[in-house]
Amino acid sequence: MNSSPAWFAIDQCDIHEFAAIVEQPVLPEDYPYASNVEQGVLIYESSAMNAAVGDSEARRLLLSELARALESGPGVVLFRRAFDDDAVLDRATEVFREIIAHEKAAGIAPGDHFAEAGANDRVWNALEKLAVLDPDTFVRYYSNDVLALICEAWLGPRYQVTSQINQVNPGGKAQSPHRDYHLGFQSPKSAEAYPAHVHRLSPALTLQGGIAHGGVPIEAGPTFLLPNSQKYGPGYVASHLPEFRDYSERMAVQIPFAKGDAVFFNPALFHGAGSNRTTGSQRLVNLLQVSSAFGRAMEKVDRRRVVEAIYPSLLAWKQAGATEGALRNAVGASAEGYAFPLDLDANPPEGSDAPGAQADVVLRGLTEEWSPEELAARL
Questions:
Q1: Domain that holds residue 350
Q2: Measured distance CA(131)–CA(53) in Å, rounded
Q3: pLDDT tens per residue, range 3-33
Q4: Which residues contact 323 (CB under 8 A, 6 or more apart)?
Q5: Same domain, 260 and 333
Q6: Cα(30)–Cα(37) distance, rounded to whole angstroms?
Q7: pTM of the model
Q8: CB atoms near residue 339 (< 10 Å)
């Protein structure tokens, strides 16, 4: 008989059971592609993974290792210099800060998750805004192989990227320890209403990540992380309890980020933004919530608008010699990768196959070098 609970409730949460899970050691020999383990976090050197990315068998082994690390391992991986094109990174930073300044001037003070509204500078739907304001930078930024690799490892193909800028200013306070999308945004009572299998399923639908747009020393408050905490079943309920938050704040680890580093973790991992104790450092991180094509994304992104904005840049870059893989990465981060929902009278399935998705149309357009006008008509 299955003894697993059908529901998770507040009175089931046991801090001692949680601690026993969290304090399990992370063994380097279990993760041969990682360069080392630092405070329970698996560290990968992005430059050393290039050979694996280009070899189908090695890539499969690496994808398997990364998925295992996020599910049954520490739940978090850090890629050193995942974004190594400083010119692209710097230009993206400029655009993000221009958006912040523009929205502030317009009197917009976006709300924030797990932090006081207005304390930090937030840009919601930064993915679409970057695409429209600077398509060339968008294409090069999101063509990144490491991003595509970790997304595929956790979510499979046809994932959906959303991006939210979080700039923590000097004096900015740490967030409360929390889990994230989907059930992490629910109240305890609401989370209790979902069956236990939904608690286990939810983290498999989303990948959480952050890209450092500058160096983040400890005093600037890099993301604090609690390795292994994603493995605790009632964690979406427990994360609201004071004893679990106190334990998480006491036991969480922080690792300094260099410019271009990218951290990715299971959204069920207890984590949060750290306090910025500097007097002059604005910590800008591009937060990513990447969703399975079978789930729904955190934000409603006008992906047709994004695609039409960046298509001339994609086409020009293809004609200049961009690799097919780089183009696919950029399209994968921008176009709709799932065919449904849509009007099946206008777009009927062919046999047992679903209609083509928006991403298929864009990739065909690039292959056949359609004009932007033709792409718009096809979309």
A1: 303-378
A2: 26
A3: 689 999 999 999 999 999 999 999 999 999 9
A4: none
A5: no
A6: 11
A7: 0.90
A8: 19
